[in-house]
Design a protein that fits this description.
Blueprint lengths: L4 H23 L10 E2 L7 E2 L5 E4 L4 E8 L4 H7 L2 H6 L2 E11 L2 E10 L5 E9 L4 E9 L7 H9 L2 E2 L5 H6 L3 E2 L7 E6 L3 E5 L13 E6 L11 H10 L4 E14 L2 E12 L5 E11 L2 E10 L3 H13 L2 E2 L2
Antiparallel strand pairs: 1-9, 2-3, 3-4, 4-8, 5-6, 6-7, 7-8, 10-18, 11-12, 12-13, 13-17, 14-15, 15-16, 16-17
């Protein structure tokens, strides 16, 4: 078959249109961060984060963070997203919208951030039969970065998929684990933290089983060297499940070429009144840190503190 000049131009235009439509179709597909059940179509030039579950564009000071929660957490979560509660967390609400995304229901709240980190922020919760998706997006600074429409379009493109194995979730964390000293992973949170325990129960009450938590920092600035001890004590005292904290040991040291701070303390578990021992270790790097917390009943301290030490010494941050 031969084509004349006009026919060839028409054919080329049609072919180009087909290619562009295919590219657009691919571009519109939701992207799922590694091991995440939550995905969406990110704004242009926003890529999968290596530090948390979600997307970011550091040049535009923008990020979208995913948090997976149990399905029955949706209503308590939404009930807690009041104007006053958001204001206490540094967000001044400017809009609130009930969503219907396919068969799923949700809520999208927009607002501005107050304080040193001024900018815009969005909080979205979506309910599915097997999971509650909490999405927190922010663009720091003034009018630069992404527009309101771009961010809202991205958030409303949310997609959810089936469960991901705990092993795959752990492998996607921004740190590497060595000797786990007999502990097993129970839950990965926000793509940057993981809870371990040793025993048959996945939900641990009154520290009936030892627990160990590893959490890498998100967008929190690393404190200067002279304030790291103060920072470590503030982090320990901010723990909502502990009270009557009495520090036994607090020290800073160098290990693996980095600064560390470690606290060992006695405390009381708030809900049960159970006396426990807590070991908190923070490893500081120039642009991030990882916080490790081990919890054990007091009578098991001689067995569990050395195990916490083995886990801590085997953890390295991913490049």
């Amino acid at each position: 078959m031969k084509f004349g000049g006009a026919s060839m131009k028409a054919f080329a235009a049609a072919a180009l249109g087909l290619v562009l439509s295919v590219q657009a179709g691919f571009a519109a597909e939701p992207v799922f961060p590694p091991a995440s059940r939550i995905g969406l179509v990110p704004p242009e030039e926003m890529t999968v984060s290596k530090r948390f579950s979600g997307f970011e564009n550091p040049e535009k000071a923008a990020a979208i963070n995913f948090v997976e929660m149990p399905a029955d957490a949706y209503q308590p979560l939404v009930n807690g997203l009041t104007k006053d509660a958001l204001k206490r967390q540094g967000m001044s609400e400017t809009s609130r919208e009930n969503l219907k995304i396919g068969t799923r229901t949700g809520i999208l709240i927009g607002g501005t951030m107050t304080g040193p980190g001024a900018g815009r922020k969005w909080v979205m919760a979506v309910k599915d039969s097997g999971v509650t998706a909490l999405i927190i997006a922010q663009v720091r600074g003034g009018g630069d970065g992404y527009s309101e429409a771009q961010m809202r379009d991205a958030l409303k493109s949310i997609a959810l998929r089936g469960p991901v194995s705990i092993e795959e979730q752990v492998s996607a964390l921004p740190f590497r684990l060595g000797d786990m000293a007999g502990f097993r992973p129970v839950r990965v949170m926000s793509g940057n933290s993981v809870l371990f325990t040793d025993g048959p129960q996945d939900i641990v009450k009154a520290v009936e089983q030892p627990m160990f938590i590893v959490a890498a920092s998100l967008n929190v600035p690393v404190p200067p060297a002279e304030r790291r001890g103060q920072f470590a004590h503030a982090a320990l005292n901010s723990n909502q499940i502990l009270k009557d904290i009495k520090v036994e040991r607090s020290e800073s040291f160098r290990f693996k070429g980095q600064d560390w701070h470690e606290i060992v303390a006695k405390a009381v578990e708030v809900e049960s009144g159970q006396p426990i021992i807590v070991m908190q270790t923070i490893r500081f790097e120039p642009d991030r840190y990882v916080r490790m917390v081990g919890l054990s009943r007091v009578e098991q301290r001689d067995r569990n503190l050395p195990r916490f030490r083995n886990v801590i010494d085997g953890i390295d941050l991913s490049p």
